[in-house]
Design goal:
Distance between the termini: 27 Å
Number of helices: 6
CATH class: Alpha Beta
Number of strands: 3
CATH architecture: 2-Layer Sandwich
Order of helices and strands: HHEHEEHHH
Structural class: mainly alpha
Radius of gyration: 15 Å
Strand order of the largest sheet: 1-3-2
């Protein structure tokens, strides 16, 4: 495999923002209140809650109450967030023949899909639209 320069947090965030901007407009528009955060690794609390042993075992995480379980009476103390974990995503990228943007798009769509309660088929359709 050829050596690639691994993006730092700021570079990775720029790639994530460009990738998000390239997702279908109707999909992006639905996410107006969801924040996207880039961190190197998931917290140990997140890994424990999901019963994941390795910090490399989680590429992204939706944090919040998905729309299918929200009530108009609910007041969320924290903003809805999608975490992208840079080091696990980069480790995956180094061992797969995929563009970094495609991997990030997959993780974003999957995590945003959790927010909206989308099915796997819905998420696959959105990924196809984003790739096309």
């Amino acid at each position: 495999m050829t050596s690639r320069r691994l993006p730092n947090l700021a570079d990775f965030e720029a790639v994530a923002n460009r990738t998000f901007a390239a997702l279908p407009a109707n999909f992006r528009d639905m996410t107006k209140d969801v924040l996207i955060r880039v961190e190197d690794f998931p917290t140990s609390e997140a890994l424990d809650a999901l019963h994941i042993d390795s910090p490399y075992g989680l590429l992204g995480l939706y944090h919040g109450v998905d729309l299918t379980r929200q009530s108009v009476l609910d007041v969320s103390p924290l903003p809805e967030m999608i975490f992208l974990y840079r080091r696990p995503i980069l480790a995956y990228w180094e061992t797969h023949d995929e563009a970094l943007e495609d991997i990030i798009a997959h993780v974003l769509i999957h995590e945003i899909g959790h927010h909206f309660g989308l099915s796997d088929a819905d998420m696959e359709r959105i990924e196809s639209e984003a790739a096309g």
